[in-house]
Amino acid sequence: MKFAIVILNWNGEVLLERYLPSVVQYADHADIYLADNASSDGSVAYVAQNFPMVKIIQNTENGGFAKGYNDALKHVDADVYCLLNSDVEVTEGWLSPIRQLFRDEPNVAIVQPKILDLLNRDYFEYAGAAGGFLDQLGYPFCRGRIFQALEKDEGQYDDVCEIFWATGACMFIKRIVFDILGGFDEDYFAHQEEVDLCWRAKNAGYKVFYVGTSKVYHLGGSTLSNMNPKKTYLNFRNSLFSITKNLPRRKAFLIILMRLLLDGIAAFRFVFQFKFDHFWAIIRAHLSFYRQFGKMYHKREKANFIIKYYATKSIVWSYFVHNIRKFNILVKD
């Protein structure tokens, strides 16, 4: 199988200087592409001058993560895409176990490696950690990360297992599956579009896997930090989009009503924390969701909806009421 590593870039010259060398060093015969989202800095010139082996694709606009990859991947010749953030440092041999899994498991469509924190290397990183899951209300969480609580990597997730969603920070996906699913939903712009893509893949009968024997380090927050109100807006809105699109109709309406209520509680919690920008971000997220509800409803997949999409009932209740901070306590076999 032919692999291609595709790095989406927008004004990321500093990040490329720091992290692209590790990708080039450990590419292991995979082609490397820089997919540039109409950057205005010197990042394209820097890569062209210093890494001539990297193929450059220049998008005509900054369409965010979703459109950026959709546009760029049309120009990539590969059987498997590795979608890699520009702020990821890869390690020696990281590709080998993932290649092996794709060879051994024909129905595996999407894979992610272990994601560790670049600045605190003994701990999992927020975006993806050791593989993503959902609770019954559609809240995403990870092995190794529940809300802001990050676990130390002590080998507890060095396995290979099926997960529900893989992080866009480092996602491997078969080209044929990406094409069948129609790529990322460009209405998301950024954040949680990978959750939606994996959910649609699951509904279509494909498998998503985590490979703990492959390891990368992610800086995180280089485009939008967790404290940015725009990230709050996109996460709250896009999560409602995914529920609307990927659950049976009656179930989706019930979950949406419950989520709107909980979102309201979260909004007023921001008020009491004097984070008024985040309060308004949730209000704007809901207004945008209402405006686009009809559009999202008509995008619902024709495939059978999977019934068991969640790994636990409520991470909100478990985290804030029972003070559970570790995946293995939250989700018991």
Give a structural overview:
With 333 residues, the chain is α/β, with parallel strands linked by helices. 40% of the residues lie in helices and 21% in strands. It has eleven helices and 13 strands. The strands form three sheets. Strands 1, 2, 3, 4, 5, 6, 11, 12 and 13 form a nine-stranded mixed β-sheet that branches. β2 (31-37), α2 and β3 form a beta-alpha-beta unit. The longest helix has 24 residues, at 249-272. The protein is globular, with a radius of gyration of 19 Å.
Keywords:
333 residues; 13 strands; alpha/beta; globular; nine-stranded mixed beta sheet; two-stranded antiparallel sheet; 11 helices; Spore Coat Polysaccharide Biosynthesis Protein SpsA, Chain A; 40% helix
Q: Give a short account of the largest sheet.
A: 9 strands, mixed
Average pLDDT value? 95
Class derived from helix and strand content: alpha/beta
Tell me, briefly, the overall form: globular
Number of strands: 13
Secondary-structure element string: EHEHEHEEHEEEEEEEHHEHHHHH
> How much is the radius of gyration in Å?
19 Å
CATH class of the largest domain: Alpha Beta
Q: Approximately how much beta-strand content do the residues carry?
A: 15-25%
- How many domains? 2
Q: Ends: how far apart?
A: 35 Å
Which bin fits the share of residues in helices?
Answer: 25-40%
CATH architecture of the largest domain: Alpha-Beta Complex
The residue ranges in which pLDDT falls below 50 over 5 or more consecutive positions are: none
Number of helices: 11
Output the CATH topology of the largest domain: Spore Coat Polysaccharide Biosynthesis Protein SpsA, Chain A
CATH superfamily of the largest domain: Spore Coat Polysaccharide Biosynthesis Protein SpsA, Chain A
